[in-house]
Amino acid sequence: MSTEIGILWPALAAGLLVVATHVPLGIRVLERGIVFIDLAVAQFAALGVVVAVWAGLAPEGGAVQAAALGAALAGALALNWSERLWPEVQEAVIGVAFVLAANAAILVLAANPHGAEHLKELLTGQILWVPPARLPLAALVSAGILALWFGLGARLGRAGFYVLFAVAVTLSVQLVGIYLVFATLIIPALATRMVRRWRLAAAYALAAAGYATGLGLSLFTDLPAGPLLVCVLGVLGIVLMLLKPRSAPASRAR
Question: H or E stretch including 128?
């Protein structure tokens, strides 16, 4: 039992740190209609990791983290620029950016004999094996993101939003993987879109319950934690959407 707890608590702590920043960001992303920005920026961060490792840098070193952040910031600022130029097709631009970054990463990994395994780790993550030593810095960065988000709000502006988003995604994609980052961002926001009161609290509760349940099931079933967490979050989101009735349409004036 002590072994399971020793594995579970760093994974749950890492997951809750991702939840803390991604739930409020996800609500804003859904409101703005740029749902796939998370996938795109996360893929830019992953591309930065892949290129840095290909260049011979230590995978867990600070230089790789800097490369991931630099790539994510460059991608986020490019998307901010494209939104000013072509706001009517921004979602399509985001999709193209994701595809280009993903295939660039595949090309870089093609010559690596362990490339397929590395790509799988970037996509699905290794949340059960998060080193506890990484958590204090992750908690500090997450606290800074939340302080800026709730302290400045709309005063961040569009560029500030993209920069803050890039920092949050860079931190989380290396903790839990691209798929789980996207699920944490979008599923709670989507599932609570009809909640009129305490929406943020409901979204936080759904995400936290999904991580706790998914990690417990992963230890019990020995299934990979990342994909299982995505599925658990999806099921909980669907249940909440079915339980929460849609608002009745306004009656027409006679």
Answer: none
